[in-house]
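Researcher: Can you fold this with guanosine-5',3'-tetraphosphate in place?
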Amino acid sequence: MKYENEINKRRTFAIISHPDAGKTTLTEKFLLFGGAIQTAGAVKSNKIKKHATSDFMEIERQRGISVATSVMSFEYKGTLINLLDTPGHKDFAEDTYRTLTAVDSVILVIDSVNGVEAQTRRLMEVCRMRDTPVIVFINKMDRDGKNRFDLLEEIEKELHLQLHPMTWPINSGKDFKGVYNLDEKSLVLFTANTKAADEDVVQINDINSNLLDEKLGDRDAATLREDVELVDAVHGQLNIEDYRHGKVAPVFFGSAINNFGVREMLDTFIKIAPTPLCRPTTLREICPGEEKLSGFIFKIHANLDPKHRDRIAFLRVCSGKFERNKYFHHVRLDKDVRFSNPYTFLARDKDVIEEAYPGDVVGLFDTGNFKIGDTLTEGENFFFTGIPSFSPEIFKEVVNKDPMKSKQLEKGLLQLTDEGVAQLFTQFGGNKKIIGCVGELQFEVIQYRLLHEYSASVQFNSLPFYKACWITSKDPKKLEDFIRYKHANIAEDKDGHLVYLAQSEWFLNTERTNNPDIEFHFTSEIHK
Ligand code: G4P
């Protein structure tokens, strides 16, 4: 029973947003509510400041800081919340995508002034692939934003997401008066810099009550009544199961910096967000209630700071109980391993832990045994599925500047790509090594690390590709023909899967049209 309680107590999620929409600010307010921090400003932002974008060492230093806040665990009203942080910088987007494989739901922050932005779109694509339940927080209502109806329409259309408003705003910008809680039928009046738990809440019960006019003035009260009538007629009650299956996203309006509208969302979150979910594996579905431990590595963090040369593998526990010093089975290496200093990530510091339950994330010190997607069990052999690689966006050929060091280079490239820093492709039928990344910064990181950790000196030559598509076909002959015909654009990934490197969208579309028997995939599953 105790074990079941531990599972049901947990909610594991991530806050995602386009940079600057307010993710860090919202995270901090959550931690304040959870009592994990006492004062605002206590959370070190893992946001990479704009002036540092050309200095990757500075970025790495900041990333180093962010290891401590990679997972923030806190309790709120008896619920244990594991909040997984995601890097804000777009060059580290792949890190974020992988973190999304380890959560059970997300909160998506949208800036009410800017609406849907590039990174929002891409993050939602990843969420949609897994039907991840989403709650939307429309932030910065204290600024003159887009019209509320237009904004909701834009989000629905651009993100292919059906929305369900839970609160409704009264104006925005300097006229912002607060939100109406559609579910509780209460009015939450806006005051700037609201301290945790002292919001000005007025119970209304009847939308026609004079209290509404008294508090908002006749004009705004009338508008709110019209809005609420419209919204209620369209949406009705939230269907929680639809939310949990990723079909409907509840929406809250607020202002993170003013801690406004955050409590409503957090209270709803702990009520409706899923407890740790069952997950598919190569063998069968594994549910958290199973007695034996299973979990997978979704992130590896290697620190470039010479003072902290540690590598940490992040394990998401999926079933059973993780225990310190107990032997677990490392499926890929087929060997038993144990951990004497596993740690959990509390918001303040990292702490060595004795045990962890499904939904928890454990940090494991690693000397190179782990790669992304590795599974730990109590003896069974399976891998968790649905941990995909996404197509990189920048491709460069690796040129070895020191032929005496080719062994070291080979080893370095394999290890760095195991960590998920970049993807490695080998030209088909040749040995040209191609590195694919999401952002330019990774190339600098790789060059630096190859030199300092493996004594391998490289330079990169840009290649004119824009996307890698994994290719398969039911007809081996057709695949063979395509490879022969397009050999200059064909490579193999690290696991020997074939990819087609497209120069442009036009080329990609043309090849897809001309080769209906070839399937082009935009992600590759690490384990199928
Ligand atoms: P991010 O993690 O998503 O990148 O965003 P972050 O929370 O760092 O917020 C980005 C900027 O937006 C910050 O201002 C922050 O203070 C501001 N902000 C967050 N929530 C609100 C809100 O509800 N209303 C308004 N008006 N602003 C908000 P900054 O000037 O870039 O940084 P800082 O100097 O304040 O830290």
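Model: Folded with guanosine-5',3'-tetraphosphate in place. The pocket of guanosine-5',3'-tetraphosphate is lined by residues 17, 19-25, 45, 47, 88, 139-140, 142-143, 255-258 (CB under 6 Å).
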